[in-house]
Amino acid sequence: MGRPDGIIINGKGGKGDGKDEPMFSMTPGKTYRYRFCNAGMKDSINVRIQGHTMKLVEMEGSHVVQNMYDSLDIHLGQCVSVLVTADKDPKDYLLVASTRFTKEPHTATSIIRYTNGNGPASPELPKAPIGWAWSLNQFRSFRWNLTASAARPNPQGSYHYGQINITRTIKLVNTAGTVDGKLRYAINGVSHVNPTTPIKLAEYYGVEDKIFKYDLMKDEYEPPVGKAEEKITLAPNVVKVTYRNFVEIIFENHEKSVQSFHLAGYSFFTVAIEPGKWTPEKRKNYNLLDAVSRNTIQVYPNSWAAIMTTLDNAGLWNLRSNSVERQYLGQQLYFSALSPKRDLKDEYNMPDNDVLCGIIKDMPLPKPYSV
């Protein structure tokens, strides 16, 4: 739910007037699972239900400690599941979603109707929290459920990520500037553009040196201070990473708006978010026991966020801003995790009928991966 000029719930834009609102039904005494996803283009949202609390049970595929919440902030690209029990007076209640951190909040509502209910919902909507400090404190309350089962026949907590040695630290700073009079967004001074030959095809055919350069973006970056304008490079932003290495990625946000990032192909542990600038000494504040494993992370204004992950999925994986305009105007990059053995156990071959373009269009198929 969510878009820059309003909010959509189940395909309908509610206005809070009850005339064109989607509706859900609950039977008294029963418990229901609601899953909220912020599939918007720009804004964070807050969701709440009149007179009801929500038990958080899942975040982006992870079982979490089942704390109770009156409302939940959901940032761009994030999904959560909650349990709601129909234990109030049988009548109508409003599910409310509103934008956060915007000058004028946009609000949508949905009717939750108790079966055999005997009255309309109150027109007084529960208020959203104010400020991002509240949202940061809520983030800190989210915990991985260490005893819940995982994909393998072991509890989630059997994976002790906090005991793995960090092999590489990458600090990413989101910035903005102009190139030839046009707005561009960048990560560490590089604004991504797609080459005419797709990056993965260029790697598979062994002609990447003719299409792009690895590691134009450095692991450490400091934007210019004061009024100095940042130099932004327009190029494919491809970072070569060592397969199966355990990395620490720091997102540093020097802007006044909340940012949100997604890493395709991996889940990561969201070990910390704090105000200010990151330094190695900040590691002492990391949650190395029960940080939630997920695939999106928000970064508050003038703050930093730290994640940890094992790059054990061979291939080319996109890390991008969840803001559509920022992503479109260059605030994204690709991690290239190449299998050193070209082994089918690590990565599949490109399909023989794949559509070819660019400089590889008429080239013969390369030697396939083997077991």
Automatic annotation (TrEMBL):
Domain Plastocyanin-like: 3-116, 224-339
Family designation: Belongs to the multicopper oxidase family.
Region (Disordered): 1-23
Gene3D superfamilies in the cross-refs: Cupredoxins - blue copper proteins
Record organism: Solanum verrucosum
One GO molecular-function entry: copper ion binding
Biased composition, class Low complexity, residue ranges: 1-10
Pfam families in the cross-refs: Cu-oxidase, Cu-oxidase_2
Protein's recorded name: Uncharacterized protein
